[in-house]
Specification:
This protein is an alpha/beta fold and 424 residues long. Helices cover 16% and strands 21% of the residues.
């Protein structure tokens, strides 16, 4: 139900409305005696497209506002000992990196520090802008899904402690061979890749926007190209260190609604699914923010390691959700993760502050209210006051005994069930 300027909700008028039903995924917490730690084996990266495409997607509206301070802390180690072939970082490159960090710190909501090892290297593939690996953890305390790998940055927030121990959660290599555009403003360069955009993209991978599916190319030379699965070309497989899937994998399906994990591991049938240009992320929040339909993932006919499956589909090019597509054109300046990407991260388990989509639940009595799914406001008034113009307020079912006045366009939507707003 959309509300526009000068519409007033009067005291004494009872507004009863059954708002659009939204399916909610409920995962059961599981305590664990000890966490198991691994690391992703394939770097998920971003490819340069030299064709100029000058366009600008601004950062979240609340970014930089003093009224909305950072709700997460990210520490960056520039060229630590974990780097291989590190080249000295310039001050301008670090300044651009920090802007991307600041944007994520204004969105993520968590009390566990996120540590990034950032390597400025000259040994990446010629077209690769950046590549990310991450520490992953399974069966940790409060893990929503057993026998499932989570990015350590997320697992730490869910567990309330540093479950992966000493060291970074995210490891990112950036290609020092490029002539980067290192500015932090809206104007980019039509013959340079935008560094802030690439950092924003790679951090998203480290936060968990990555799957563990692979397709074998049939080559195993014993050194630089090992068998991805069984060594047979076209075979698809999943799992790391014990064949457990990642939480991202539990949401993926084909266009017919069949879960990717339902196909036999180490099979051609799975390989065909992963290269059929027909893979989607079916998560409740991502679906809502993608117009109530699962967002398409990148699944070209030829498996592209580091790109396939762990990026949004090409349908998102030239949209506000383009950050997590597999390539970046010169001249593109994207300073917002995009609503679909934020929805995917929320489905994976992240608590996010996103003032374009605000959440309200009167049952929240924790004292922590930032308008996210995990820490919602507990009054509709707070939600409407916080949401940005044209945004959506998602309200948990129940009766909200309050009056509201509206002076901007917004959308009210139920999280599932009947919502009653009004004073009697």
């Amino acid at each position: 139900m959309a509300h526009f300027a000068h519409i007033t909700h009067r005291t004494g008028l009872l507004l009863v409305t059954t708002l659009l039903l939204v399916t909610t995924l409920i995962l059961t917490s599981r305590p664990a005696a000890s966490a198991e730690i691994g690391r992703t084996t394939t770097g998920h990266g971003l490819i340069r497209d030299t064709r100029p495409n000058p366009r600008y997607v601004p950062p979240p509206t609340w970014y930089g506002e003093e009224a909305w301070p950072k709700t997460a802390t990210i520490t960056v180690n520039y060229n630590p000992s974990t780097c291989n072939g590190g080249v000295a970082w310039t001050n301008d490159a670090q300044t651009a990196f920090q802007m991307a960090v600041d944007i994520w710190e204004s969105i993520l909501n968590g009390d566990q520090n996120i540590e990034i090892d950032a390597c400025w290297v000259n040994n990446l593939a010629a077209t690769t802008l950046g590549s990310t690996a991450s520490s992953i953890v399974r069966n940790f305390t409060n893990a929503p899904q057993a026998n499932t790998w989570y990015s350590a940055s997320l697992a730490n927030q869910l567990a309330g402690s540093d479950v992966n121990g000493t060291g970074a959660e995210i490891f990112i290599n950036f290609n020092s061979n490029f002539d980067w555009f290192l500015g932090t403003g809206a104007q980019g360069s039509e013959d340079q890749p935008n560094f802030v955009t690439v950092v924003l993209h790679e951090i998203a991978h480290g936060l968990g926007f990555s799957g563990q599916m692979r397709v074998d190319d049939g080559v195993n030379n014993g050194t630089t190209n090992l068998a991805e699965c069984t060594g047979t070309a076209g075979v698809g497989c999943w799992g790391t260190a014990g064949a457990n899937p990642g939480i991202y994998d539990r949401f993926t399906e084909n266009g017919g609604g069949t879960a990717v994990l339902s196909f036999v591991n180490n099979s051609t049938a799975l390989g065909n699914q992963l290269t059929g240009d027909d893979i989607f992320f079916d998560g409740p929040t991502a679906n809502i923010l993608n117009g109530f339909t699962p967002p398409e993932l990148y699944a070209p006919g030829t498996w592209n390691p580091g790109s396939s499956y762990s990026h949004l589909g090409e349908v998102f090019n030239n949209t506000d959700d383009a950050l997590m597509t597999f390539s970046l054109n010169d001249g593109e300046v994207i300073h917002h993760p995009g609503e679909v990407t934020l929805g995917i991260l929320q489905d994976l388990g992240w608590d996010l502050r996103n003032l374009s989509n605000v959440w309200v639940d009167k049952a929240n009595t924790t004292g922590v209210e930032v308008g996210s799914i995990g820490s919602p406001f507990n009054t509709v008034f707070e939600g409407i006051s916080a949401v940005y113009q044209g945004g959506t307020v998602f309200i948990a079912p129940g009766s909200y005994d309050e009056g509201i006045s509206v002076i901007k366009p917004y959308v009210l939507r139920s999280q599932g069930g009947t919502v009653i707003i009004g004073q009697q």
